[in-house]
Design a protein that fits this description.
Strand content: 25-35%
Distance between the termini: 45 Å
Shape: globular
Order of helices and strands: HEHEEHEEEEEEEE
Largest sheet: 7 strands, antiparallel
Number of helices: 3
Number of strands: 11
Helix content: 10-25%
Strand order of the largest sheet: 1-9-6-11-4-3-2
Length: 220
Amino acid sequence: MTPRLARPVLDTAALPRLVDALVEQGWYVDEEVIDADLCAELHRELMALADHHALDAAGIGRGQAHALRRDVRGDAIRWLDRESLAQRRYLEAMGELQGALNQALFLGLFEYEAHFAHYPPGAFYQRHLDSFRGRANRVISTVGYLNPNWPADGGGEMVLFDAMDPEREVARVRPTAGTFACFLSETVPHEVLPTRLPRASIAGWFRRNASLGGRVDPAR
């Protein structure tokens, strides 16, 4: 019997649209991009971690500037570490995407980091940038959504704002399983609106190696 080939994690037809959208507008959003079975596996894994209190409260800032601010950000996270087959499949797909982006856009992306993000009811994340000009190691941000059958009134949408006019909303992303978003980390402001239901996703970042001299620029 011929072994069954695993389905691709990301819809290969989406790649040209993704590249074109990043060039033209700095962001990309599409539905049914991530394999549905993989979304279900990752969702079960994240919810089990939440049920067993195995997630860490997310903070803002890095290094010595890191702080817990529940008035700014209310999710809990767990960094992906390839412990499960589902994690490995997702991270391998992001590695393939990294190669495609480097080939198409010459971005010099060096590595990818990602974590599960669980927002309990009522949680949100205020408007922010994922990186700052002049200190950018995070170049492209990604969000993969894992929530099955998300209702229209479930809240928890990610709102993207115009890089040139941060008050102008350009997209509102419903956190439905299979939806995939990516955007330029240092130019596209975004926020997560309060959620009415437990909200599950994977947030990730393609990074350049910004280490200089003897100073190592850490991934987290």
